[in-house]
Structure formats: C-alpha cells, structure tokens
Amino acid sequence: MIAYLCQRLAWALLVLVGISGIVFVVVHLSGDPAALYMGPEGTREDYQLLRSALGFDRPLPEQYGLFLWRAARGDFGRSLRHRQPTLPLVLARFPATLALTAAAMLLAVLLALPLGLLSAIRRKSVLDAGSMMFALAGQCMPTFWLGILLILIFAVQLRWLPVYGGDSASAIVLPAVTLGVWAMARTARITRSSMLDVLPQDFLRTARAKGLGEWAVMLRHALRNCAIPIVTALGLELGNLLGGAVITEAVFAYPGIGRLAVEAVINKDVPLIEAVVLTVGAAVLLLNILVDLVYVALDPRVRLA
Amino acid sequence: MPERRARSLGILRASAGARVGAAILVVIGLCAAVPQLLAPIDPTEQRLLARFTPPLSRSADGTFAVLGTDQLGRDILSRLIFGARTSSLIGFAAVLIAGITGTVLGLLAGVRGGVWDHAVMRLADMQLAFPFILLAITVIGILGPSIRNLILVVGFANWAAYARVVRAETLAVRERPFVEAARSLGLTLPHLVARHILPNVSASLMVVATFGIAGAILAEAGLSFLGLGVPVAIPSWGGMLAEGRQYVDTRYWLALFPGAALFMTVMAINLVGDTLRDAFDPYLHVRRSLDQL
Description:
The complex is a heterodimer.
Chain A: H1 2-29, H2 33-38, H3 44-53, H4 60-72, H5 86-121, H6 126-140, H7 143-157, H8 173-198, H9 202-209, H10 214-225, H11 227-252, H12 257-266, H13 270-298
Chain B: H1 2-14, H2 16-33, H3 35-38, E1 57-58, E2 64-65, H4 76-112, H5 114-129, H6 132-143, H7 147-156, H8 159-174, H9 177-184, H10 189-225, H11 237-245, H12 253-280, H13 282-292
C-alpha cells in the first residue's frame, strides 16, 4: 500500500516536471522571455537590468534547473500584474473553484445515477430513449453556449437566479449546472451500459429468489456492481471539471482559478501562468490518486501493488 | 472486407439518427466548401445603419436579415456560413496532425514493443492525466492566437487516443496467422505494416477520428470564446459567441445562432460516429444478435 502510494506520487511528480518543461520551452519559444516580463514601455537599461536580475542571460539548462528548484519550494516568482508572490494569489482562488467543481460533480451524480439506472431497467421504453437523447445532447452541448442559454432563460427572462456575484449561495447554481452537464451526460450513459451488462447475471436472479424486493436488488446488488466503471468515469471527469471550470468561470465572471488563468494569459503574466498550471495540475494528479484509493474501498478484489 | 462494408452501409441506412446527422454534415460541408456561393452577403461587411437587426426582419437600410445582424451590422447567417469553413478547416487539420502523430507512435509501440512501448504509453498517460485546456491557453497565450497555433495545439494535444487504439489493434493483429505467414515469407517490416497492419486498424482509426473532429471543433470554439483562438477578423462560431455574450440580455440572437450551429454540428458528428462504431465493432454484432434471440 505504502509502496504503491509512493510509486504513484513519484509518477505524479514526473508528470509535473514534464509539464513544467513544456511551459518552460513554450515561454522560451516565444522569443525573448525578458521582453514578455518587461512589456513595451521599458527602456534598454531597464531591459538589461531585468535580464540579468531574472537570470535570463544564463544558459537554458541552468535556468530550467533554477526554475524547478524554486517551484519545488512553492516559489513561482512574483506576478507581473498583481506585484505580489503568485502562489498565495492562486491559493486564494482555489476554494471558489473547488466549491464550483464539487457542486457540479454532486449535481452530475445525483442526476446521472437515477437516469442511467431507470433507462437500463426500462430498456427501449420512452423513458430510456428520452434520457439517452438528453444525455447525448448534454455531451454535444458547448459549455459556454449552455451557460449563455441558462443566463438568458433563468436570469434575464425569468429572473429566478443571479448571474454574477459569487457571494450568495444561489449564484453558484447556474455555473454548477453549466459545468456539470457534460459529466452528468457521460456518467448517465456509462451507468446505463454497465447496468445492462450486470442485469442478466445470475446473482441478481439469486437475490430475487431469496425474496428481496426489486429496489433492494437493483440498488444493493446491481448498482453496486457497476461502481467500478462509474467511479472510473467520475474520476476522469474530475480533471475535466477542473479544466472546464476555465470556460465556465469566464462565462459567469466567477471569481475562481480558471478566470485567474485566463486573465494571466491575456496579460502575459508568465509567473502567474506557471503557478496556475502547475498548482492545478498537481491538484488533478492528487485527485486521480485519491480515486484509485476509492477502488480498494469499493472492490475487495482490487489489490494495490 | 466488401461484406463488412455492405453491413456498415446497411446500418447507416437503418438508423434515423445517423441519417439526420449525415444530412446536417452534408449541409455544413457545403457551407465549408463554397461559402461565397451560399452566403447572402460578405460576412465582414459592416453596415452601421443595420446594427442589431432582429431575425426575420428588414433592417434600417432595407436589406432582409434571416438571422439578424450583430453589433456592427454584419449579417449573422453569412458569418455562420463562413464560420463553418473555419471550424471544418481547424477540425480536419487538427485531427490529421493528431491522427498521424498518434498512429506513428502507436505503431512504434505495438510493433517494436519493449522500451518503445513503455515510453509511448507512459507519455500517453501523462497527456491524458493533464487537463488539456490549461496547457492550451498557456501555449496559445504566450505564442499568440492564430489559426496555425490553434491547429498545432489542438492537434498535438490529442494524439494519445489514436496511439492507444493503434497499439491495441497492432498487438492483436500481430499474432494473427496471416501476419505470421507474411512474416515467414520474408516481408520487411515497413511492408508488413503498410500491407497488413494499417488496413486492419483503419476502421478503428476512422471511428476515433470522427469523434476527434467533434472534439477539435469544440476545443477551437472554446478557445476562440476565451479570445485565444481564431483572430477576431475571421468569422468563427466561438468568436461570434464571445461577442454575442456581451449583448445576451437584450439581443439574444447574437449568441443563440452560433451556439446552435456548433451544437448541431457536434451532435451530427456524434450520431454518425455512433453508427460507424456500431458498424465496425465486431463484438457489438455478437451482442446485438444475442439480443434478438
């Protein structure tokens, strides 16, 4: 168990180093990184000063080594725009995005499981066709368009829910629906197909023969055996949700990490971009490891080695 | 092979969803191929007198706008039609890059095996473990938005799915008797790959590529929506949505139609893709015929 965890953490670290390498290469591909830091209004003396102060005049491998060494200690430099260390900026935005992701995930699970379950049980019924149509539509829906439609219907026309303002609890509803629909659609389809694989199996007949009620058979015996594919899908969705938050937050002007990322990119705030990419990346990789640990709890046959 | 093709065509004919999807794709394809023949007017022509004309009405300067006009008086239908060309171009080009990169790496992993296999698959894991959009906005944000950068980023970020499919199919095909026979006849490796392995993985590749085009079009629109995709001067659905978002409270049509075009295109590709997958997946036939018993 401990050995497995160490192996996974080492792998996650390797992925992060790879990602940091890509970001480093891209920043240097853009031409002169010192010019990115400087902006158009600096003088030639300022430029030379900045270049040597930030170490851009050193050989590339040395620069990358220094970058990694600093990043390992949580030091991604100072934000060019906000004029303060980047890591606290990123961490301050994290709770809002985590809340949004969690709400979206909760919504996805609460809708997807019953939809998938019911359409598998009532296969080829109107309910099945309807909910699978709904799921297909959800998967084809561009996030940003769905967000705009929801704003148009619920905030502009009906005036039920606020569009902007992250303070009130109801302000999270529209963004969470927008972000969660894709994961909901996918999970509903996976729940249905794995239920269809489980339904004809013998142990369900045994459970019925014992005299268990149909709901107990479905929930305790059938759905439980679909847990692994569903959790796998949801685990993969976690990464997508954190990534998808970038667009959702842009639509709703939601004050999370995705908006920080877009602002950083538009302002060419290189240290902030690096900090956001590596922090969110680390969060996604850690969540993936957690999902793997959930397998052990769900299925006693799974041995981590 | 002919028998398989007939079967797939039979299924294409049978499914209503796929037929609707194919019809939509034909229309989109026509728009992408000859937009100048289909568009009512020049999509970049600004007419300040005709700003914000609602759909199905005549604007102040007397022209009729089927889907209305935007904040600069540009005709939305014309922009949608030219936007189809932008989306298709980027979708196809990105899938081509992803498909070629993925196929080469997948073949390398499947045919060579050993260290190569290990390296390619770990690289694919790495790619799949990381949220694409974060890397995409970083790369495009720093290198600058352009159609070329967009194609390169969306293309190179999606090779992993192709590599996995090609590798899996290659491993399965490699052990089959006809490949062994070809090898024992002294065929060289490139010949073996070209004549025996590639034709066998092409069906699966086609299915992955079909869904890949939908993904690439969505990614392009998402990045354009963030202002990091197609430059503003070129009509694109994502860019139109981004502009329309500012007026959503009073002029709904600016954002409604480009989103609908995007949704319908992706839906159509998915419907056709589902049918292709059903047609090419041999296991599904077994399951389907068991159902009918």
